[in-house]
């Protein structure tokens, strides 16, 4: 009996080591962006199985498919004035992206407005942006607040958060496959899925949101938009979720007090950049 227990302990230790090696084997530590004034400098781990170029190509194709479907339904860029507003704000933010990564100037940026009741906006890898009319119509953001949304989404793309999450998933799935083979049990995969959710999905998602918040605030300030508007924006987002399902953009990250506090601190840090930008525009 004792021998069996020792054998099991030894086996699980080995299996755990194999899992850890499998998870780490395909990933390389890097930093996709410069830190900026807000100091985003966390080491990221990207898998060689998820090349940046390949992910951007996939994003470009998916974006084209989304636009094609929206156009077929008469839901693409229906309001010329609204589209011009979104594109103007986006271009001012994109012009500041080089602060975090100079190569973003060479991205094939696209900006479109989709008619949908969802309160949502996103930026795919490589700079493919979409804003939903539900965000504009229901939240009624000022230009400063809309800049906060767009800056946040652009920051996700600059930081390559999508690639990082795909890398984590691929590495984790590889490790779980090794562990399942080692144990000969499907239960390990279920347990592994729960562990992955706690260790990877939730913590990293929160980390990604914080990084995008901070970088977005800096992009807005440098582009001449009041960074403090990020606070009022997320307060509006939070209010929109009261008594209803949260806006899609907040589906996994409600606007908690800690987030507001962090945004306030980030906004104060970049206020000099905002004042400088305003001063230059006034000349």
Explain the overall architecture.
By secondary structure, the chain is mostly helical. The chain has one domain (48-282). Helices cover 64% and strands 8% of the residues. It is built from 9 helices and 5 strands; from the N terminus they run αββααβββαααααα. The protein has helices at 2-25, 52-72, 80-94, 133-139, 143-158, 161-183, 187-222, 229-240, 257-282; strands spanning 27-30, 44-47, 110-114, 121-124, 128-132. The strands form 2 sheets. It has a 3-stranded mixed β-sheet, with helices on both faces. Strand 4 and strand 5 form a beta hairpin. Helix 3 packs across helix 5 (143-158), helix 6 runs antiparallel to helix 7 (187-222) and helix 7 runs parallel beside helix 9 (257-282). The termini are far apart. 36% of the residues are buried. Mean pLDDT is 81; it is low at 14-25 and 178-204.
- Head-to-tail CA distance between termini: 84 Å
How many structural units, i.e. domains? 1
Query: How are helices and strands ordered from N to C?
Result: HEEHHEEEHHHHHH
Largest sheet: 3 strands, mixed
Kindly report the average pLDDT value.
81
Helix content, binned percent: 55-70%
Count of alpha and pi helical runs: 9
Which strand order spans the largest sheet, edge to edge or round the barrel?
Answer: 3-5-4
Q: How many strand elements?
A: 5
Strand content: 5-15%
Rounded to an integer in angstroms, the radius of gyration calculated over CA atoms is 22 Å
Low-confidence stretches: 14-25, 178-204
Gross morphology is globular
Structural class by sheet pairing and helices:
mainly alpha
What is the chains' assembly state?
single chain
Protein name: Peptidase family M48
Pfam family, one: Peptidase_M48
GO molecular function, one term: metalloendopeptidase activity
Family: Belongs to the peptidase M48 family.
